[in-house]
Amino acid sequence: MTARRQLIIRSVAIAAALAAGAPGLALAQAKLKVAAVYTVPFEQQWVGRIHKALKAAEARGEIEYKATENVSNADYERVMREYATAGNQLILGEVFGVEAAARKVAKDFPKVAFLMGSSLKPQAPNFSVFDNYIQEPAYLSGMVAGGMTKSNRIGMVGGFPIPEVNRLMNAFMAGAKETNPKVEFSVSFINSWFDPPKAKEAAFAMIDKGADVMYAERFGVSDAAKEKGKLAIGNVIDTQSQYPDTVVASALWNFEPAADRAIKLVKEGKFAAEDYGVYAQMKHKGSELAPLGTFEKKVPADIVAKVKAKQADILSGKFTVKVDDAQPKSTAK
Length: 333
Description:
By secondary structure, the chain is an alpha/beta fold. The chain contains 11 helices and 11 strands. The protein starts with a helix and ends in a 17-residue tail after the last helix.
């Protein structure tokens, strides 16, 4: 059979399959329609990591991506329904404050895949959950902080005391204690996901009481540390380029493993309700300790060695960072 004849037969077969509505082939030809609903701006660190992963998939030509930022809790259900009705096959977002409404939408659209940031469990058949289980690099960043404090006092400013924040703070504190048993912590929450001025004021208060290293769970904390000539540890994203003399290390969250898995499963028609939290772990490349960068020569060599050894133990499974979702408390007097 000639190559030209093979090509003609193949073309006719493809055309016939499309005419018959062969689902697998049609799905492979079209980009997956993906939408996201966010309660905060794209620049907010947590949502920013989700947005980054989906923009990367869009840039690769895998998906058609639309997103809405700054959606109020009162409007969240409406926006979700609009995206589902518009034919989006995968919808993402964070539903910590609108769990009931979001799960109701998922029930009403059983053929749409939902992957939502949530503290609760998956909901069959189509509502999967995720969270930033980055307690492993948070522990490592705590080890760095414990080795960098001179006053033995670390300040910690968080958004809300919910599990996904608490577990990172507790892991950080445990790591700091490993390298510096004398360290004490001041802990406060600003009860907002995005209020840099409020976080900054909370940080100032801790610095005034002797904290020389700040755990920047929220935007605004590193600004306070910079203004006061103190150090900061980042969370979720790496802001050292903006604060080269302030941010020592950061625990990074990479949403790509979770996003890529969901996209693949939806395309294959295999998406089901499951917990994607595991894909935030270091072994799945869902999290990592950012390079020390400008602080590479400033962090004591013995601390760097301990951090590298602990990281190796985490990756090998020899050491497991405890997941502690309890609200962390101040220990500083």
